[in-house]
Amino acid sequence: MTSPSTTRTAHWPAGSAAATARATTHRLATGVTVLTCNRDENAHGVTVSTLTLASMKPPMVSVALRHGSRGLAALLAAGTFAVNVLGSRQDPLARHFARSDRGEGLTRPGPEVWAGHTADGVPLLGGAVGWLQCRVTRTVPAGDHELVLGLVTDARLGTADTPLLTFAGNLHRLPAPASPADDTTRS
Fold it and tell me: Which one-letter DSSP state was computed for residue 138?
């Protein structure tokens, strides 16, 4: 009989740890955001699902971007960025900003999708759940990615009620939340 204090080390079969970790994290439901930076014809956007709140005091977010990616280079060169928390009906925008051939500038994907700018001039996508204006404060190497830490300098709620999610490699729309008048379970 082994004592409760005995620890066992899990041994991964050769080559399976990375595949299993990827398959497991692929099944995490996460919100979908588009990071935007720069201005006008140099505006750049990239779809990410790795955004997380890193700190409440001060408010900070972190995002993992692949080494050598255009998104990482643009974000670091700009020094400021906006987080556009996509609404459930914005899956076409998520797909657009995930494409490697998406191009740059406000004319792509079209001027009608933009809804103004941050105080720093960073473009914002209309129809979002909300926006965070951020300043890059630090980067941390993390394997084949770079963690970018951003100080939230401003935040606004948008017009969308429900976020767009990604789960198991697919985008998912949530149903609109029930209004209090629709809730028949309350007494």
Answer: E
CA-wise closest residue to 136 among 144, 148, 147, 154: 148
**For the segment 59-97, what is each residue's pLDDT rounded down to a tens digit?**
999 999 999 999 999 999 999 999 999 999 999 999 999
Distance CA 64, CA 71 (A): 10
Report the C-alpha gap between 161 and 178 in whole angstroms. Answer: 10
User: How far from 40 is each of 75, 80, 108, 147, CA to CA, in Å?
Assistant: 15, 15, 10, 26
This prediction has a pTM of 0.83
DSSP 19: H
Instruction: Tell me how far apart the alpha carbons of residues 83 and 146 are, in angstroms, rounded to a whole number.
Output: 17
User: pLDDT category, 185, cuts 50, 70, 90?
Assistant: low
